[in-house]
What we know:
By secondary structure, this protein is an all-alpha fold.
Amino acid sequence: MMAFEPHHFLPAWALRARNRMALLRDLPDVIEVVARSLRSGHNLHGALSDALQAGTPAGRSLAQALRRTEHGATLSEALRDWAVEIDHGDATLLCSVLEMGSLTGAALADTLDRTAATLRERSELEREIAALASQSRASALVLTLAPLGFLAALFVLDPSTTAVLVTTGPGVAFLVGGLVLDTVGFVWMQRLVAGVTQ
């Protein structure tokens, strides 16, 4: 009997997004392996080859980039193409560090260790921001629904008093104005949260 594998039922875009997240999560570990390999005496190409043997999503992705060097591309070109495909600041940063290190001959292993630490810190910060943003979105939803819930309760508990909102011109104007302001407030809060998470 075949085991149930949820990823078989994911749309292609969701699967790509999940694979990209896994790749970015594993990237600092791969960078540290490259740094250790460089310290043991390997050149950059050899150090990358060592790191790719782990079989992690980041390793498999970089392995595909290295295969391009077997068909005439330089290592810099292969890494640049890889960073463009990943389309994330972490991949761009790693590509820049590797290119600069290979051109200048600087202490690349130490720079890679610092890069891995930076990516981990950035990832933790992004997770914290996402958690705070989800709380803010929930608060915005509560603040939006609370007046509607209160209004609905009033209609049920005291229909004679609240009937003025739907039977008179000023009442309808107040009701429509309140709903519009409630909607504007919700959209505004969502945009404020989105501005922080971008």
